[in-house]
Amino acid sequence: MDERSALRRLAAALPAAGDDAAVVDGLVVTTDMLHEATDFPAGTTRYTAGWRSVGASLSDVAAMGADATAAVAAYAAPSLVEEELDAFVEGAVDVCDAVGAEYVGGDLDTGTEFTVASTALGETDAPVRRSGAEPGNVVCVTGTVGRTAAALRAFEADDVDRGNDLFRFPPRVAAGQALAPHATAMMDSSDGLARSLHQLAEASEVGFDVSWDRIPVHDAVEEYATDAADRKRMATGVGEDFELVCALPRASLGDARAASPVPLSAIGTVTEASEGVRMDGEPLADEGYTHE
């Protein structure tokens, strides 16, 4: 069973599951697990690991349109090294500070592989689900995509400073709150833009028609892409960019852009489910990040 099949199975058994985070009486809660083998390339500093692992959970809070309040993390490594642990906590504290949340601790353990399980909490009385997009809505994305794909290429090229810098993405908590009054559906792009569109389409029972030339691509992609096809794959099919992908009524686009603290790009239109997910009129493959 692959990750998405497992998630569908859990969602069928747990009615409160299926969005980026669960919401219980206004409390938003989400958890993530990251491993060295699949999530932290060689050269990733413990500071970056602290920022990125806690940031991933904060991004889920952002996707619900919620205010982030606090985060914790369980940290496991083959040995507990003072400098590494201090750097991890510093990264976790700094990413929380960046979105107005507080890092309040967690748990420690030893194990065969460096692993982090992070949990973030937030608050909202009006969560934005994945399931509300309607045909005719505009589909938008915050910021730029392809940042993590460029980071992975930087690590492969042994440019670890560049890789670490790109890996420390800004969680879009403020943007999520600004978009919440306008969005009909929203999620983060942790699995990549293409896969996020497919996930939103499945949850909302709609299709999408997006245009490649409207997709905002991170400048770093140009540094590492080998050709046009590679640039497109880096931007849409790698994932873990942690931008917000949302649908909103066309009449609300201007107000949403004015409210958002980061650029908001309209990349296409919500269509009927029978149309599927398309880019430039052609089927867009359901490709992106998957835990193996």
From TrEMBL:
Keywords: ATP-binding, Kinase, Magnesium, Metal-binding, Nucleotide-binding, Thiamine biosynthesis, Transferase. Mg(2+) 2 binds at D32, D60. Mg(2+) 3 binds at D20, D60, D188. GO terms for biological process: thiamine biosynthetic process; thiamine diphosphate biosynthetic process. It holds the Pfam family AIRS. InterPro entries: PurM-like_C_dom, PurM-like_C_sf, PurM-like_N, PurM-like_N_sf, ThiL-like. Mg(2+) 4 binds at D20, T30, D60. ATP binds at G106, D107, R130, S190. The keyword Cytoplasm does not apply. It catalyses: thiamine phosphate + ATP = thiamine diphosphate + ADP. It is an enzyme of class 2 (transferase). Pathway: Cofactor biosynthesis; thiamine diphosphate biosynthesis; thiamine diphosphate from thiamine phosphate: step 1/1. Mg(2+) 1 binds at T31, D32, D107. Residues 273-292 are annotated as: Disordered. Residues 134-276 form the PurM-like C-terminal domain. Its EC number is 2.7.4.16. Residues 18-123 form the PurM-like N-terminal domain. Gene3D superfamilies: PurM-like C-terminal domain, PurM-like, N-terminal domain. One of its GO terms (molecular function) is ATP binding. Substrate binds at D39, E240, Y289. Mg(2+) 5 binds at D191. Belongs to the thiamine-monophosphate kinase family. PANTHER family: THIAMINE-MONOPHOSPHATE KINASE. Reaction mechanism of ThiL seems to utilize a direct, inline transfer of the gamma-phosphate of ATP to TMP rather than a phosphorylated enzyme intermediate. Catalyzes the ATP-dependent phosphorylation of thiamine-monophosphate (TMP) to form thiamine-pyrophosphate (TPP), the active form of vitamin B1. This is Thiamine-monophosphate kinase. The gene is thiL.
